[in-house]
Amino acid sequence: MQCDLETHFSLNMDKSWITKAKWSRDYVNGVNNFIEFASRSKNLSGKILCPCKSCINRYFLSLKDVKDHLISKGFFPGYVVWNRHGEEHCIIDEYAINDASRGTPK
Fold it and tell me: Looking at the DSSP assignment, which residues form a beta bridge with residue 48?
């Protein structure tokens, strides 16, 4: 998906909490926000794919079970664009980034 900078930054949420300790307030709040976001892409049974280190987006689980897995096991490494949970990935060109940061293209 091609998009402008404003759309790019609104779609790419802060996920810095994913690398924090699983018992930290930031991590737990981040998991809660993820569950809220991912709940928009539930299947007909009301379940979502579980992105924990064990399930690796292979199994549909209830929101409660996904939350429990993420708190106890953490996200599987590399899942940074939540495309299996409704997040779209934008591709923006080099000129758009340079225009925003320096005012001129490379």
Answer: 61
